[in-house]
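Please check our next protein.
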Amino acid sequence: MGIESLFRKKLPYADWPKESENVTSDMAKAAGVGVARVRCHRNTWAYLAQEVPNHRMGADKPMEVVDNVFRLPAEEDITTETDGMVTVPLAGSTLASVLHFCANIQDWPHYPNHAYNELDKAVGRRVGAAISQALQNVVPSADTSEPTAVVYLDDKITAKDATA
């Protein structure tokens, strides 16, 4: 599939979030997860670690308090890879607060958000869509031997699609 066909094909995160009810449901699912691992570039994680606990609901709205839910993992718990990727363990409540941030920075028809630019919103759409997609596989479990969920933020440009 060439890069042109990728642009014609609607990407799964292009219209995320579809409905506020879906986000609310996904936040409840996320809150029930003991730990999820988010694998992304260290710059993406640095952005989330800085923005999520400090985000504003809108230019005319007071500061949204999420720092009572969002907790940074200990630095020694973050796995750093040689290619700039990191794997970050997040408690379910922290995962839910990241999802809340990603949804709330979007321009919703009933709640336009002008506090964030289009780049912020694009990052939020991609991260939020990845979390929502991973949460489709959540089932209640008391089995501690099952593997920890991983949310991947690592789309690739294939060598055949790269430009010279």
Residues 134 and 151 are 6 Å apart (CA to CA). The first helix runs from residue 3 to 8. The beta strands are 35-41, 79-80, 85-91, 149-152. The first strand starts at residue 35 and ends at 41.
